[in-house]
Amino acid sequence: MRHITRPVARELTGLALALTLAPTASAALAAPAYAGTGEHAAHMGAHHMIRYVSVKGCADKSYGQVPCGHWRLDLIDGTHVSLDDALVHSRDAKGRTEAGATAPVTVSGDGESVAYFRRKDGRVVVREFHGPVHVMPADALPKGVAIDRAALQLSLDGGRLAVMYSDKKGGEHARVFAVSDPGNPATISGYEQFEGFSGDGSAVLVRDRTDDNTDELVAYDASGRELGRVVPPQVVSNNSPRALSADGRTVAVVTGSAGKPVLKLYDMVADRVVGSVPYTGRGGSLPDMADWTGDHQVTVHVNGEGASGARVTILEIDTRTGATRVRDSYKVRSDAYVYASCGGG
Fold this sequence. Notes:
Helix content: under 10%
Order of helices and strands: EHEEEEEEEEEEEEEEEEEHEEEEEEEEE
Strand content: over 45%
Number of helices: 2
Mean pLDDT: 86
Low-confidence stretches: 1-47
Largest sheet: 5 strands, antiparallel
Oligomer: single chain
CATH topology: Neuraminidase
């Protein structure tokens, strides 16, 4: 999932971490009626889950507006908590704080985990909202690489973490960690865009450029072993977002217009489009995030700007019929400097 931290304007039980997780009432966010089905719907209603993370913006003479305060987790039941131990401001190669830039943060698709750089020591951590904190190795971000050149992404269930970074020559790299046992990460290098994890987190999809200057899609398993490499047709390469199925070969991509969106299914191994499903769009624009959330389900995020700020609509699409239901819809806090939504979970 591309858990993009979007500009709006332009150990849970470990006391030593000095983390405040104090639920407070949030009048601006009413609890939605979850539109999922079956076992997953029951899971969603079982307890608090993260809807999105944001940080407040404050006026600044030099930058106009800068992030301030702490990262905040807004929950699906309308409450929120403060993520006090997460680094808010990014840092350059010399460790200097960048007042106008936020440090990376990401939420897993199931809304159960959040990953960030820890404020006190710069370590990358994954915090299970109802479980332990997992601290990544000290070199999760290699020595000499600044936080302002890094990004984070969790798999749908929060079980894997990608720490992505650019080197001094502009090369892109990703280190993929098993969150519960992060000692031996896989390293994937030599691509242009990290597209995201497969639906079950067992693989990742990246986009690269060939010597002929055409787009190329490459799938790797979680150990870094290449599963497939293909130059897709233009209907796939020229559209986004793209998401890799748990089968490691089927890519879903949204095409068409905001009024008539179509979900295309592309088989990387057969090198052909194997499905084309029109669906009902919402929110007045095409989605910018997509995830496989079942064998026959893709979940997309549509992000639009209303009169009073950003609004997110999350749709579940049946890949066989195009039947679409709204899983959630919410308005982002009006004072948010940036925000990052949960994924498709």
